[in-house]
Amino acid sequence: MTYDVLIIGGGAAGLSAALSASNQGARAAVLEAAPRVGRKILASGNGRCNLANTGPLNYPGGASLARRVLENCPAERVLAFFHGLGLLTVQEEQGRVYPACGQAAAVLDVLRGALERRSVPVLSETPAVRIEQAGAGFRLHTPRGVYGARAVVAACGGMAGGKLGHDGGAYRLLTDLGHTLIPPRPALTPLMAEKAAVKGLSGLRLPAILTLCRRKDGKPFAQSQGEALFTDYGVSGVCAMELSRSAGEEKEKSGAWPLLYLDFSPMLGLAPRRYFVTDAPEGPFRNEPAALALLKERLHILPREALLKGLAPRLLAERLAGQDKENLARSLTAFPVPLAGVRGMDAAQVTAGGIRTGEFDPDTLESRLVPGLFAAGEMLDVDGGCGGFNLLFAFASGLTAGENAARIAPDR
Hints:
Blueprint: E1 2-8, H1 12-23, E2 28-31, H2 39-43, E3 52-53, H3 63-72, H4 75-84, E4 89-91, E5 96-99, H5 104-117, E6 122-123, E7 130-134, E8 137-142, E9 145-154, H6 172-175, E10 181-187, E11 191-193, H7 195-198, E12 205-213, E13 220-230, E14 234-236, H8 238-241, H9 244-254, E15 259-263, H10 265-268, H11 288-299, H12 314-320, H13 325-333, E16 335-342, E17 350-355, E18 373-375, H14 389-407
Parallel strand pairs: 1-2, 1-9, 2-6, 9-18
Antiparallel strand pairs: 3-5, 4-5, 7-8, 8-9, 10-17, 11-14, 11-16, 12-13, 12-15, 13-14, 15-16
Helix pairs in contact: 1-5, 1-14, 3-14, 11-13
């Protein structure tokens, strides 16, 4: 039960690290706490697995480390890795890359198949409970026994995704060795609203521009665009989830959750239905004059009580009924939703926070505190936006950590 490289975690980062180490000739093995590996891969992209993004990098958390890792192991290299395993991919809008067959299982299948062909053991239901330094290597203590290795790659993932994540205990593997934990919090998760703000709108899907504004001064500070989904607790959809990190940061800074404004201009034909939001968000009322002009035009052909028919869905029209055209124009372009929080880890797609990135060499992902110890994936304090960025970092960091861990193993 002694290996050159032991990888803790059988997710995207762990499986790619195992193959990368094996490619260097190292005897590698994967320790996975769950009964099966790759469960989060299967759930990603609504079962399609958005495994990479070839566009501009988007990492709100850990940007410096992510940038360096992806300079050394860019999306092109990650895709070449998968093509070498037999996976066909297709690139869609905004640089998103998926398996050509549209099935996340294909990604996991090629990874598992390659591990089997290379005789890399995958030890499921074998959680690591403690890493012990032992001479020039390590001992990994598990309920099934003790495993030895010259190098270790910690790729345990984060806490997001409920049963797909861990309960936070995996961080202790590294904090017990002196590493620092940045408190984990949910990212890419739905927004919770004051109930009165979304009453009667549950189930409604609308293209919208979403803007977050500070409660104190009303200034906008974050924005996204896409299809918003009203729920009984708030607002969901990718565009809402992309704002959850910024909303949480504002709560930490000011002590108050921000105001969310929804601009339905894309529904009204006053703005593109798809576009890239800039880093400097505009205020939530910029399209009000155009909406007012549109409503005035409709008043020439429709009675006031039918003004929204054919323009807005019934649930929204009923909610806005009785307003004069000026207030209606404002409601359609700056619909206010006071936030009350964000959904927790069970609903989140990724974890913000994790093991401090500055404690690892960005070129190798080896610990600066514990030689021979490496980390990869969501266990580190790195989180990306929607669109394949988190899986891209997981695969790239796994390939990087596995390759460099193999290089310090003894000669064979």
